[in-house]
Specification:
Shape: globular
Strand content: 15-25%
Order of helices and strands: EHEHEHEHEHH
Number of helices: 6
CATH architecture: 3-Layer(aba) Sandwich
CATH class: Alpha Beta
Helix content: 40-55%
Distance between the termini: 48 Å
Number of strands: 5
Radius of gyration: 15 Å
CATH superfamily: HUPs
Bound molecules: adenosine-5'-diphosphate
């Protein structure tokens, strides 16, 4: 039985993230998606919102749990008894960063293997940052996120305009 963690900011969870979780859930007995607080990144959605949105988007996957965490990814992995850390790679830029992260994490927790999944063609150019920007500028985001996530994004943009 292998437990994998998939940590990220998920602000909000995109089709690309979902794809990684769905593929990971076919590879490992359990996947724990960790929604990081990531306060330093100044996220659009609050941590509780990001958690609820990701839970809703992944509700059909019986071997996937979605939890929030703050602090180090290795501590989060250790708490859940995970031996695999899943990450997604879209480009050489992602790869560079992920290799560095994997190396540092291995120094801190040698029992945790980082597994990098190459983004599916359909989501290769999808990034949370761009999805947020497009949504905030009133653009069409339905191809990049699942329908419920798109609703949450539209509601957030509308509430910002009122505020
Ligand atoms: P972080 O703040 O840790 O980078 P993100 O939520 O941005 O968190 O991303 C979590 C993981 O998902 C990272 O490994 C990132 O490279 C990967 N990822 C992001 N977008 C995609 C995508 N479209 N396809 C595949 N992997 C992706």
């Amino acid at each position: 039985m292998v437990t994998a963690v998939y940590p990220g900011t998920f602000d909000p969870i995109t089709g690309g993230h979902e794809d990684i979780v769905r593929r990971g859930a076919r590879m490992y007995s359990r996947v724990v998606v960790g929604v990081a607080h990531s306060r330093g990144k100044n996220p659009l959605f609050e941590p509780e919102e990001r958690l609820a949105i990701a839970r809703e988007a992944l509700a059909d996957l019986p071997n996937v749990d979605v939890v929030s965490f703050s602090g180090l990814m290795v501590d989060f992995a250790r708490r859940h008894g995970a031996t695999v850390a899943l990450r997604g790679v879209r480009s050489v830029t992602d790869f560079d960063y992920e290799v560095q992260l994997a190396g540092m994490n291995r120094l801190m927790l040698p029992g945790l293997e980082s597994v990098l999944l190459v983004a599916s063609e359909r989501y290769q150019f999808v990034s949370g940052t761009l999805v947020r920007e497009i949504a905030l500028m009133g653009g069409e985001i339905d191809r990049f996120v699942s329908p419920k996530v798109a609703q949450h994004l539209r509601a957030k943009v509308a509430s910002r305009k009122q505020g």
